[in-house]
Design goal:
Layout lengths: L1 H18 L5 E6 L5 H12 L4 E7 L4 E6 L3 H9 L7 E2 L2 E3 L20 E3 L15 H4 L12
Antiparallel strand pairs: 1-3, 1-4, 2-3, 5-6
């Protein structure tokens, strides 16, 4: 029965592998495209991918949007294989979703209209006191004794 157990284990493992499927997702990539030829090359290279639902190329914003059951890293690799070595994942978000859109790290002159870079914003912690107790009673602080 050792051989039969081994064979049954083999079949259960393969059935688990087949049931694993990539989730449906949208991948956005920033690619500089100058002409119709560049746009066509990028679109055709991505169109051949397995599990693809749609490809949208926006040359004005230098943006390629791919929707389907695809791996984002493979999509980026396909785009870079066309000769567009500077391709990267879309680094921008709409400016109305960012708390401080015009801080030096987020604001980018090269960003499309209405977008800023997606950076972590430094916001104060809601639990942290606004003034430290050591600065309230400091000798170097001209307004040191604000309590007395």
């Amino acid at each position: 029965m050792g051989v039969l157990d081994h064979i049954s284990d083999f079949f259960t493992v393969t059935s688990i592998r087949k049931s694993k499927r990539k989730p449906m997702q949208t991948v956005e990539i920033k690619v500089k495209m100058d002409c119709d030829g560049c746009e066509r090359r990028v679109k055709n290279s991505v169109r051949k991918m397995k599990g693809l639902k749609s490809v949208d190329v926006d040359r004005k914003q230098s943006r390629v949007t791919v929707t389907g059951y695809v791996d984002p890293k493979k999509v980026l690799k396909k785009v870079r294989s066309t000769g567009k070595k500077r391709a990267e994942f879309w680094p921008y978000v709409p400016y109305n979703l960012v708390a401080y859109p015009y801080v030096p790290q987020a604001y980018d002159k090269k960003a499309p209209a209405g977008y800023v870079k997606n950076v972590a914003q430094a916001l104060p912690s809601p639990n942290a006191p606004t003034e430290r107790l050591t600065t309230l009673f400091s000798d170097e602080n001209p307004n040191a004794c604000s309590i007395m």
